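Recall the central idea of this unit: under ordinary conditions, the amino acid sequence of a chain determines the structure it adopts. In this exercise we apply that idea directly, starting from the sequence alone.
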Amino acid sequence: MEVATHNVTIGAPVETPVSPPTTPDLSHHDAIPMDIGQTHGTGAWADDIEEDSEKKELITVAVMDKPSLIRRRLPQLFAALSATLGGFCLGTVLGWSSPAGPLLEKELELSEETVSWCGGIMPLGALAAMVMGSFTLDRVGRRLPLLCLAPPFVLGWMLLSFCKDAWVLLVGRFITGFCGGAFCTACPVYTGEISEKEIRGALGVCFQFMVTSATKVASGRSDVSPLGFARLYRGDCNHALLASVVIAARGRDDGWRATCCGPPAGILYVYVVGKWSNLMWLSLLCSIPPILFFVLFFFVPESPIFLLSQDKTENATVALRWLRGGANADINADLAEMTETVAHARARKGKLKDMFVSHAAGRCLGIGLGLQFSQQLSGINIIIFYSVSIFVSAGSRMDPSDCAIIVGVVQVLATFLSTVLVECAGRRIWMMLSMSGMGICLLLMGVYFNLKNSDPETADHIGWLPLLSMCLYLLFFSLGAGPLPWVVIGEIFPGEIKGIAASICGGTNWTLAFIVSKTFVNLVGAIGTDATFWLYSGICFLATVWIFFRVIETRNKTLDEITKEIIGE
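Accordingly, the structure predicted from this sequence is:
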C-alpha cells in the first residue's frame, strides 16, 4: 500500500497559511469579546460596535418599561367602573318610587294622583335627556357632560329631601330623571370607546350590573367596526326597566355584544335604605352616588374616539396612553383601529328619511316598535316603581319592604342567570317564553287580588303568591323581554340607519314607560287591582302571539340573510 509522505526539515519553521482579515459581523455582536477594540484596533469597527451596543441597551430598557398586562388594564378598569357609577345613580332614581310612595302619602299627605305623577314624570326627564344627549355627545364630548350632570343630580335629590310642596317634588323628580337618563345614554358609550376589545364585554357587564335587570349578549355578524357601535348608538337608550343600551364590541370580524339591562344594584340599594329611612334620609342617601361619581370620574380622560372625531389626534394619543398604562404603552394598533372607526362612522352616517325608503326598512321599524310596546306594556315598570305599594295592598304577612328587598335580590340573580341561558336558543323562542311566563305571573297576581276581595280566607292561605309571582315575573323578564328587543334591533337594521332606528325605538320606550307608570294608580282606582293585572297579563299573551307571527329569527344569521327574509325572498 502506498502512503503519501511530506518532506519536512526538522528544525525549520513551519509555515501556516494566514487568512485575510475579515470584517466582524455586527449583527451578532453580543458574542464579540469586550477587548475587540484592542484586538482589531480602535478604528471605525469599534465606533460601530459602541453605537450598536447603545441602541441595544435602549431597546432593552424600552422593553423592560413596557406596561404589564395588569398595568395596561387597570386604568381602563378604573375609568369604566367610575363610569358605571352613573348606572348605579340611574338605579337609585328608578327604585326611589317604590319606598317613597307610601312615605309621600304618610309624611306629606299627598294624594294618590300626585304620587302617581311623582313616579311617572321621571321617564319624561329621561326622554328629554336622550334627545339632548344625541346632540351633545358628538359635539361636546363624553367626559364633560357626565361631570356636569353631578351638581344638578345632587340638587334634584336635595329638592326631594327638604321640600314639601308637590310641584317642587315633581321638579326634583324630573331633574333626577333627566340626569339618570343622561347617564344611561353617555356612560355605556364612554365605556365601549375606552376599553380594549378583549375586556370590553366584561366591562359592559359591570355597567349592566349597576344599571339593569335583564342582560345578555347578542353575538351576531355586523358590517360595522367594533368601536363604531358606540357612535352609531350615541344618544340612544332604552330602559328594560326604563333600561339602557350598552354597546360592547368584541372585534371587527368576531361580532358585537350588546348588553341591555335595568338597575339591580341601584334599585336594591334604594330598597334596603328605604326600609329604615324616612323620606328625607332616603333622598339624602341617594345623593351620595352622584358625588362619588364626580370625584372618581374627574380623574379619567376624554374618550379617544371623540377626540379623533374632532381631529385632535395629539390629545387622543395622550388619552389613549393614559388608558393603556402610561407613556411607554404600545397604542399603535388601538389608535389605527379607532381612526378607522371614526372614518367608517362618518362614511355610514344615515338620515331619518332612510328609514322609509324601502319596504324592508319599514318592516324592520315595525318590528322594533312592536317589541318596545310589548316590553313596556308588559307592566315591568309597575313592578319596579310600585313594588312596596303592591305588597301593602296584598296584605302580605312579611314586611312589604322586606318583600321589595327580596325582589331586588332576585333582579340581581336573574341578571347573571340570563347571561348564561339566553344564547342557548333563538331570540323568538326566548321572547315568547318570556312573554307567556310574565303573562302567567300577572294572571296569578290578579287571581290573588280577586280572592282577597271575594274570599279573604282563601287569600290568606296563599299570602306567599304575590311575592313568588313577582320574583318569577322578573326572572322571565330577564330571559327575553328585557334584553332581546334591543338585541334584535341591533341585528335587523343596516349599520347606516341603526343609530336612527335605536333613537326612534328608545324614544318610544321612554314615552311608554311614562304612560305605564303614570296610569297604574289611575287604572287601579278605575277597574281594580285584579283587573289591572289581568289587563297587563292579556297584553303579554297578545305579544306572544304577535312575536310568533311577525318577528323573524335573527340568531346566527348575517344581515343579508335577515334582509332577504324580511322582504320575503
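The chain has one domain: 69-566.
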